[in-house]
Design goal:
With 137 residues, the chain is α+β, with helices and mostly antiparallel strands. It has two domains: 49 residues; 68 residues. It has three helices and nine strands.
């Protein structure tokens, strides 16, 4: 049985790419700030008015909710087959499924969430399903 899941549109959190001096940015309660690169982060679960709040503080914010698909899966063994990154390095941006760029976030236990470009979501999901079969799941 597959443990891969797409998050439904109703459950998908708002995602804002924030640009500027993100090291000084303090997310509000319920928000998560995930690194994308120097001067760039992804603000997940951004609340109402987050873009305006960020603009007031001097940040540029771009809504990435429709651009990124979220995939969740279980197992460090699957993570090791999907990417060269290890759990201790996460959250981080890396390559999955033979070169697809992704932001990889650790969740509870050995569960992980991938943020991948929407146009590549089905491909990455198929790769994960194939890897799960190879692991006997």
């Amino acid at each position: 049985m597959s443990r891969l899941s797409f998050l439904s549109a109703a459950r998908e959190p708002t995602r804002l790419e924030v640009r500027g001096p993100v090291d000084a940015l303090q997310p509000e309660a319920g928000e998560k700030l995930l690194p994308l690169g120097p001067g760039r982060s992804l603000l997940v679960d951004a609340g109402p008015g987050a873009r305006e709040r960020l603009a007031t503080d001097g940040y540029l914010a771009y809504d990435m909710t429709a651009a990124l698909v979220l995939l969740e899966f279980d197992g460090e063994d699957l993570l090791h087959r999907l990417t060269d990154l290890v759990p201790e390095q996460l959250p981080a941006v890396g390559s999955v499924a033979r070169g697809t760029p992704a932001l990889i976030e650790p969740l509870d236990g050995s569960r992980f969430r991938l943020y991948v470009p929407r146009e590549l979501g089905e491909y990455v999901a198929a790769v994960i399903s194939d890897l799960e079969q190879g692991l006997g799941r």
